[in-house]
What we know:
Beta-galactosidase, Chain A, domain 5, 2 domains, about 10% strand
Amino acid sequence: MDTHFYLLLIFSIIQFGCKVDKSKDEKLKxxxxxxxxxxxxxxxxxxxxHGYGKTFPGSATPFGLVQLSxxxxxxxxxxxxxxxxxxxxxxxSFTHMSGVGWNGDLDNFLVMPATGKLHTNKGTxxxxxxxxxxxxxxxVQRDAFQKKVAEAxxxxxxxxxxxKHLGFFTNFKTHKNEQVLVRSGISFLSVEGAKLNLATDIPxxxxxxxxxxAKALWNKALSTVTVEGATERDKEIFYxxxxxxxxxxxxxxxxxxxxxxxDKKVHKTINFTYRTIFSGWDVFQSQFxxxxxxxxxxxxxxxxxxxxxxxxxxxxxxxRWGMLNSYSECMIGNPAVSVVVDAxxxxxxxxxxxxxxxxxxxxxxxxxxxELGYIPFNTGGSSTIFGAASISExxxx
Length: 397
């Protein structure tokens, strides 16, 4: 996957405190969100590899571009970056996946505040003081990569640098109770896009204002459903679950509508937000039918995005599990077809219907039961993982 990320960081030394406006008489929907629910992965203290939520506990906005959260351990079965069962932190990164089953990605732009000696590589459970920031690389074995990072050259007084697997550091002289505030913008397209996103979404250093605005967005999003007659704990569980349904598919285009397409060229949306991370098999029976009721505009965005990917990639069929313009083809079935048909039947049709139909048909013709009407045992069907799952594949198609 040849995807580039761009990050703009602006630093300032500032003393601040975080206060969130809250009515003493009324508990808002966002007050029920408990992001620690589900934030665990398989590990030494867990017993069931599929029994944990693999969510991240950090900050996000509904279907937004940024998911800022702590990373306790990346790699392995920790693709959301964080687990309650871990005892140390690698840093804080700006993009996270949520609820990943087996595999995942992201955890980009890792930032680690620290004092004392500079460490370029992350620590270990036995030597936590070696923690620092580390870029990700799947091409080399993890331990060998950490050794390379630990031995990386350090260049001082550099304002601009280009290359692969880069990290950077900056120093501040602070006195007691001073804190370094980081204001950041990211883009999947360009530095200019990152600057524009930052200027639009966080134009000043008002931390409390950012918190207030994000909370208002979640209150509005969660207010599409009202629960009555439930206990406070039940409401916490419910609204946290509802919150988790509104992380993906996330924004992939910049605030001006520009985005990098699956043809690796720059395009501009006109009447929709270009989105990514469509975990089709996981969501077509549950999350998306719900979103057709409470967030039909987002569903329309995703269908337009699926059409763009199918067209610009030249594949002319829908992705089964799409991420950052790639066809991961994880799992089985043709979930995008179900999403498109369900939306159409419910009157969500602000997309090119002819193209959607053509790509739906191409998808079914390319991946399905064919003339047999079923998937024979051990032929693999459309999946490279479940070669023996003929019954499951037949039912999915």
